[in-house]
Design goal:
Blueprint (H helix, E strand, L loop, with lengths): L1 H37 L12 H8 L7 H21 L50 E7 L4 H8 L6 E7 L17 E4 L5 H8 L10 E5 L3 E2 L5 H10 L4 E6 L18 E2 L25 E5 H10 L10 H4 L7 H4 E11 L17 H30 L11
Parallel strand pairs: 1-2, 1-4, 2-3, 6-9
Antiparallel strand pairs: 4-8, 5-9, 6-8, 7-9
């Protein structure tokens, strides 16, 4: 009689255990349902996990249980839902500012920095204390080591109000360290490239926007009679946005417009050979300077930079088109006579070409210059014609010289 009782006694715990399993399963299903209903729009990327959970995801041996993960997720989602309710908005509107620079429309305007500068910064200390002063002007020279002495003399004509930048077409930069100023200068080196190639790639208007004037000069200029700050004062006084120093008349071939006149500070017009100037306000009698020692105001350079072609590296023809960037050009372009220079006409960059078909390196370079002039004139004429036609206007016969 004792055996049946023992058998019944053992079956009771099994029955209770089964009931607990069924009860747990039902509770689990109900909790799962309630959890799903409570978060119909919760995305896992919007759950703000604390660093401990992130560590768990990265290290599965951390010992944090799945239940702990769900508890954190539940609490985070509830906080997010409460914050949304408090703001009376189901969704925070995304930032989109169409007036921001292209590509930065999704940023708040207060964080957008659309311009930069060429001022070196320290690697330590408070950023606001990096600069004791900010240069107001930029001067660039495209140089080879053979003109080192001439560039040293030229740089010394520019005070600490100028940033000095050297473009090295021969790849030799360390030899310049013998000059103290060279240690403060900015050096950029790409072999066998011209100053307009460099200018297009390294002098974007948003990079040089902190400078009032930008000097883009050749390496073979004598500066004995030149003072940079006096020059700046004269271009301001006479309202010149594009200018150059006068050239000594008896040195090298020059246009009449760019020859120095000894009886005045600045001139803006000249007389050329008969038939060369169909309009006294157009190049080469006015609105014209050469490209060897050009000086641009900030606003003029912004326009000129966009006109420089990526593949036309010598800049030939650009001098005749500079007038497109200022108005009235015959008033805004001129030559500073009282601060003058000498063009030494050293063909150092020309010798960076290749000797082909029995021709000297400089001959190939000169042929490329002439070809680029033709291409540039054609492109500019075609672009202007296309613009006028797009506006329903009959194009003029020619707006070029």
């Amino acid at each position: 009689m004792a055996k049946p009782a023992n058998s019944i006694g053992r079956s009771t715990p099994r029955s209770n255990e089964g009931m607990r399993l069924i009860f747990s399963a039902v509770i689990g299903i109900m909790l799962g349902y309630l959890f799903g209903v409570s978060f119909p729009t919760v995305n896992i990327t919007k759950l703000h996990f604390p660093s401990s959970i992130i560590s768990y995801i990265e290290d599965r041996n951390s010992g944090i249980t799945t239940q702990t993960l769900l508890n954190h997720a539940w609490a985070s989602a509830n906080r997010h839902k409460k914050n949304s309710s408090d703001s009376n908005s189901e969704k925070i509107p995304k930032i989109y500012v169409p007036t921001n620079p292209k590509g930065a429309e999704r940023l708040p305007p207060g964080i957008v920095v659309s311009e930069t500068d060429l001022f070196p910064r320290r690697l330590w200390g408070d950023p606001s204390e990096d600069l004791s002063s900010e240069p107001r002007y930029l001067v660039t020279f495209t140089v080879g080591i053979s003109q080192k002495a001439n560039i040293d003399a030229a740089v010394k004509k520019f005070s600490d109000k100028f940033t000095i930048m050297l473009f090295h077409y021969d790849g030799r930069t360390t030899e310049w360290d013998e000059f103290e100023w060279s240690k403060r200068a900015i050096h950029i080196s790409v072999r066998k490239q011209t100053k307009w190639w460099y200018a297009k790639r390294f002098l974007h208007p948003d990079v040089v926007a902190r400078y009032d004037y930008i000097f883009i000069w050749d390496e073979d200029l004598g500066v004995e009679h030149f003072n940079a700050e006096a020059y700046i004062e004269l271009v301001k006084k006479h309202g010149l946005d594009i200018s150059q120093p006068g050239l000594q008349p008896d040195k090298g071939l020059t246009w009449q417009m760019t020859k120095r006149r000894g009886d005045q500070e600045v001139h803006k017009v000249t007389e050329e050979r008969p038939g060369w100037c169909t309009d006294p306000h157009l190049p080469p009698c006015a609105a014209f300077v050469e490209i060897m020692a050009t000086v641009f105001s900030r606003d003029a350079w912004r326009c000129v930079w966009h006109m420089i072609q990526n593949d036309l590296v010598h800049g030939w023809g650009l001098d005749f088109a500079l007038r497109k960037c200022v108005e009235p050009a015959h008033e805004k372009i001129g030559v500073v006579d009282s601060q003058w220079i000498v063009h030494q006409a050293v063909p150092s960059l020309g010798n960076q070409g290749n000797a082909e078909n029995g021709k000297a390196p400089w001959e190939g370079v000169r042929a490329r210059c002439r070809k680029e002039w033709e291409i540039f004139q054609t492109r500019l004429a075609d672009a202007e014609k296309a613009y006028y036609l797009s506006q329903g206007i009959t194009p003029p016969n020619s707006t070029l010289v």
